[in-house]
Amino acid sequence: MLLFAGRGSAFAESHNSAFFIDKNTLILLDCPMSAFQKYRYLDFNQIQRIFILVTHTHGDHAGGIGSMIHFTQFVLNKNRNISLTVAAPSDRVKKDLTMLLRIEGCDKTAYSLITADQIGESWFRQAVPTDHADLLKGKCFGYCLYLNGRTIVYTGDTKILEPFLPYLRPGDFLYTEASVLDKTVHLYLPDYLPVLQQLTEQGIHVFLMHLDDEREILKQIQGTKIQLAPLYHFRKEIPVRLVRTKISEIAEIKALYELSFPDNEKAPFPLLFAKQYFADVDFLTIYAGKQFAGFFYLVNFEHLSYIFYFAIRPDLRNKGIGSRALQRLQKFCYGRKLFLAIEQPAPDENHYQERIDRKYFYLKNQFRDLHKRVQEGSVIYELLSTGGDVSPQEYHDLIQSFTGKFLYRNIPMKILED
Fold first, then answer.
1. Whole-angstrom Cα distance, residue 374 to residue 377?
2. I need a labelling partner for 312 at 20 to 30 A (CA). Which of 66, 93, 137, 226 fits?
3. Same domain, yes or no, for 33 and 118?
4. What's the CATH number where 134 sits?
5. Residue 236 pLDDT greater than 60, yes or no
6. In this structure, are residues 249 and 256 in contact, taking their beta carbons and an 8 Å threshold?
7. Residue 297: which domain range?
């Protein structure tokens, strides 16, 4: 429902801010400077109106509003007429924003400043007062929205969840902040984790935002249906492309394949190479600029695409290339259910942190935990997907179409029933 320019807390590189588009209207939930630097790369060709809904006036939430007003006035509106409205959750916050925008030197003709009860749009329900920082007491709010037939609750910064619970019903969406480092002004995840889990069991979709330690938070929600807020990727710093693998690239791919996967997870490489001619397989080479960067081995069946193998050269890892390759692949597989299997992170096993980091990588790149285990040979994996659930029958049909009945009967490959 909502997409995020950032989901970090005050001292993160990318501050928390969400957005959505309704017809020709762009709606921003807060606008810190770090988010503005990303929002300016959105496609504004079809946008006629911009709303900025302010939760409170801390700099990591409101610090980019002035720049967004200037950008709209001096860049977007050179040859157009996009209206920009800043919505304060209350009269008291409106007064503070009036002062802020005066300090920013914003032309009063370039924007409208209203209170939330004046919005009058179908996607808006109301501002919800909450408790956050004592020095902003009575000036901190979340929002209740309505999109695609569902209620969307966005808490903003809060140290309590109770004001928002009455608005939620099964099928609705909750975007709530979560902290593991502070419980004085932020929602402390260890205290509220049971409540959030109970909400997911009631059929409410729970997403965490304004995160102060993503890896620790990911560990704490391991095994639950709680997810991290989905980040939107605005631009690509390094051009990454996918091409169908050529014979001349096979030696590099084979060397990377042998280096990247343990022996008990590797199929014979000649078999993988040959299967692309006898099964529905996409063997794709990843290039970063002009250099070979890695590969995807994709097995397809009907509406499913299974990432069998994915590897990036060790010297090119942690540079954003893997994330951009996954974005390219998601476009390549548009309209299909894209999924993969990763080794289970278990605290008492070797490589636990490495597996947690790998899962974190996929979750921040729009994959979702299906909370299903799959056995492939002697290894138990977890399933992640970008396109929804994968049933045992769907998995069975895809694997059998790839391996053939003989290999399928002799190699255990199935989704495990809990």
1. 10
2. 226
3. yes
4. 3.60.15.10
5. no
6. no
7. 240-416
Flag whether 338 is in a domain. Answer: yes
End residue of a domain, out of 185, 204, 228? 228
pLDDT tens string 208-222: 999 999 999 999 999
Cα 194 to Cα 102: distance, rounded to the nearest angstrom = 44
| Residues 185 and 275 occupy one common structural domain | no
Q: Identify the top-confidence range among 25-34, 258-267, 309-318, 382-391.
A: 25-34
**Burial letters 189-200, b for 16+ CB under 10 A, else e:** beebbeebbebb
CA 402 to chain centre: 31
233 belongs to a structural domain: no
104-117: average pLDDT: 96
Strands 124-129 and 141-147 turn out to be: antiparallel
Q: How do 304-312 and 337-343 pair as beta strands? A: parallel
- The full DSSP string for 124-172 is EEEEEE----GGGTT--EEEEEEETTEEEEE--S-S--GGGGGG--TT-
Q: How far apart are CA 308 and CA 306, in angstroms?
A: 6
- Note the residue count of the chain: 418
Distance CA 52, CA 30 (A): 6
- pLDDT greater than 60 at residue 153: yes
Strand-pairing partners, residue 382, are 342, 373
Residues 188 and 297 in one domain: no
Residues 215 and 247 in one domain: no
Asked whether residue 215 falls in the same domain as residue 303, the answer is: no
Task: Look up residue 99 and give its two tokens.
Answer: 């002062």
- Indicate if 213 and 263 belong to the same structural domain: no
Q: Residue type at 122?
A: S
Overall domain count for the chain: 2
For residue 118, is it within any domain? Answer: yes
* Residue 357 maps to a domain: yes
d(CA 311, CA 253): 9
> pTM score, two decimals?
0.70
